């Protein structure tokens, strides 16, 4: 099985899929800075709108928390249709507008919801991919343990790692950190978030 990890960042998902399933994963990332930090060996430079791979060469594509970075989503959908074999799935993992209630980040930084509202919505994504021949197979919120506690979230918080936090004001970010630190004193349970997984074929 040959899988595309599109917008792979530092290659964490590529390495995981290789370890978990023994799949051949091709990672593509446009950012030179991200590629420089990547230890995954099969990382290529490339854009979603111009995937540097042959036609009908992939058994699946994984797009994790990256579609809001894609400037030309219709072109990206067309490119995925080109490189995926007939019937191969595109799996889009994302936070979508209006579906943020179970994402911890927005509990403490409500101002960041306005940033999320600028992301491509589910209906928009479905329509764009449908225009290139994809059809929705499933939409499922997938729970994940993000951290063992809010205290760990505070300790590991990196503003630059979260696009919605980068785009709010410094004052709103600091207010959110105050709320987060106060909650971390009171709450010790694991932090569980739910992002949507949209499956298209």
Helix fraction bin:
25-40%
How large a portion of the residues is in β-strands, by DSSP E? 15-25%
Overall pLDDT, averaged? 97
Q: How many helices?
A: 9
Estimated structural class: alpha/beta
Q: How large is the radius of gyration?
A: 18 Å
Distance between termini?
16 Å
Q: What is the total tally of β strands?
A: 7
N-to-C series of helices and strands: EHEHEEHEHHHEHHHE
Q: List the uncertain runs.
A: none
Characterize the biggest β-sheet. 7 strands, mixed
Strand order of the largest sheet: 3-2-1-4-5-7-6
Shape: globular
Please specify the SSE layout and strand pairing.
Layout: E1 2-6, H1 12-21, E2 24-29, H2 32-36, E3 43-45, E4 60-64, H3 73-83, E5 90-94, H4 104-108, H5 113-116, H6 122-130, E6 136-147, H7 150-156, H8 163-166, H9 170-186, E7 191-200
Parallel strand pairs: 1-2, 1-4, 2-3, 4-5
Antiparallel strand pairs: 5-7, 6-7
